[in-house]
C-alpha cells in the first residue's frame, strides 16, 4: 500500500513538473513572439483556433476582462466604402482610414484626415543616380492632392498615430503579425486597414526602386496602395477599395496575402469597446 501511495505521489509530482514546464515554455514563446514589453500589455484575449489556444496582444488598453474569441470560418462586414478620387489621387491610406473610423461610429471624412495626417518635410533629391527622400513611416511623402507633383503615400505608423487621436486607447498596430491575428479582429466584426499594391499580387523586383532616407535605405514601389479588409473565407479576401469605390471586392487569398506581406504586413485596427467591458 505504501509503495502504491509513493508511486501515486511521484506521478502527481511528475505531472505538476510537466505542467509547470509547459507553462514556462509557453511564456517564453510569447516573449519571443511579442517581446517582453508587449507581453506586459497583454490583455488576456484568449483566442480559440482549434485545436490550439494562443494569447493575443490587444494594445495599450488597461481596463479589460478575459475574452474567448472563436476564429470564424468566414467573415463579411458591412463597412462604409469611400472613393479617394477625384480629391485625393494619392490619398488611399487616409481614405481607407476614414472607412475604418466611420465604421466605428466616428464622425470624420477623408479630407479632414488628409489635412491631419503627419507630413514628411524631407525634400526630394536625385543625385548620382540615387533618390533621396523621406520615409513613409515618418509622414506622408509628397503631394496627396495632384499627380502633377511628385509623391507616394504613407505607412502604418502615422496612420496609427492619427487613428489614436479619434479612438485613444483602442487602436492596435498589427504590422508584422500573421494574418491569423487579423482574423481575430475580423471575427470580432472589426475591419482592418492594410497596405498592399494596386495589383493585389506579389510584385516583381523591377517594380521597386531604392530610396535613401534619414531612417535608412528602403525599397519603394509606386504601386503602393491601401484598402480596408472586410472579410475572408477559405479562398478569398474581401475588402473595400478606395480606388474603384467597390465594396467587399474579392481577391484570391493566397495572392492577396503575398502582396500584403511583400509590403511589410502593415495593418492597423481597433479593439471593440465591448471587448474592453
From TrEMBL:
Keywords: Membrane, Transmembrane, Transmembrane helix. The keyword Repressor does not apply. Gene3D superfamilies: Cysteine proteinases. It comes from the Bacteria. The keyword Cytoplasm does not apply. Residues 77-242 form the Peptidase C39-like domain. InterPro entries: Peptidase_C39-like, Peptidase_C39_single_dom. The chain crosses the membrane at residues 16-35. PANTHER family: LMO0724 PROTEIN, PEPTIDASE C39-LIKE DOMAIN-CONTAINING PROTEIN. This is Peptidase C39-like domain-containing protein. It comes from Cytobacillus firmus DS1.
Amino acid at each position: 500500500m505504501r509503495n502504491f501511495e509513493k508511486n501515486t505521489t511521484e506521478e502527481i509530482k511528475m505531472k505538476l513538473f510537466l505542467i509547470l514546464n509547459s507553462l514556462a515554455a509557453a511564456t517564453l514563446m510569447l516573449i519571443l513572439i511579442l517581446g517582453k514589453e508587449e507581453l506586459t500589455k497583454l490583455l488576456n484575449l484568449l483566442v480559440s483556433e482549434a485545436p490550439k489556444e494562443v494569447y493575443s496582444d490587444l494594445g495599450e488598453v488597461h481596463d479589460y476582462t478575459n475574452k474567448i474569441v472563436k476564429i470564424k470560418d468566414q467573415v463579411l462586414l458591412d463597412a462604409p466604402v469611400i472613393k479617394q478620387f477625384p480629391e485625393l489621387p494619392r490619398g488611399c491610406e487616409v481614405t481607407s482610414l476614414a472607412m475604418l473610423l466611420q465604421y466605428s461610429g466616428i464622425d470624420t471624412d477623408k479630407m479632414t484626415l488628409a489635412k491631419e495626417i503627419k507630413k514628411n518635410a524631407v525634400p526630394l533629391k536625385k543625385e548620382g543616380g540615387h533618390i533621396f527622400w523621406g520615409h513613409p513611416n515618418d509622414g506622408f511623402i509628397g503631394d496627396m492632392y495632384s499627380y502633377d507633383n511628385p509623391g507616394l503615400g504613407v505607412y502604418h505608423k502615422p496612420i496609427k498615430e492619427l487613428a489614436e487621436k479619434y479612438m485613444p486607447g483602442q487602436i492596435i498596430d498589427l504590422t508584422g503579425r500573421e494574418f491569423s491575428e487579423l482574423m481575430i479582429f475580423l471575427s470580432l466584426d472589426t475591419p482592418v486597414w492594410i497596405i498592399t499594391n494596386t495589383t493585389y499580387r506579389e510584385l516583381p523586383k523591377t517594380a521597386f526602386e531604392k530610396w535613401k532616407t534619414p531612417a535608412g535605405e528602403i525599397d519603394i514601389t509606386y504601386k503602393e496602395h491601401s484598402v480596408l479588409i472586410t472579410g475572408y473565407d477559405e479562398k478569398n479576401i474581401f475588402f473595400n477599395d478606395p480606388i474603384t469605390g467597390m465594396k467587399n471586392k474579392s481577391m484570391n487569398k493566397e495572392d492577396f496575402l503575398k502582396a500584403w506581406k511583400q509590403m511589410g504586413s502593415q495593418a492597423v485596427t481597433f479593439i471593440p469597446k465591448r471587448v474592453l467591458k
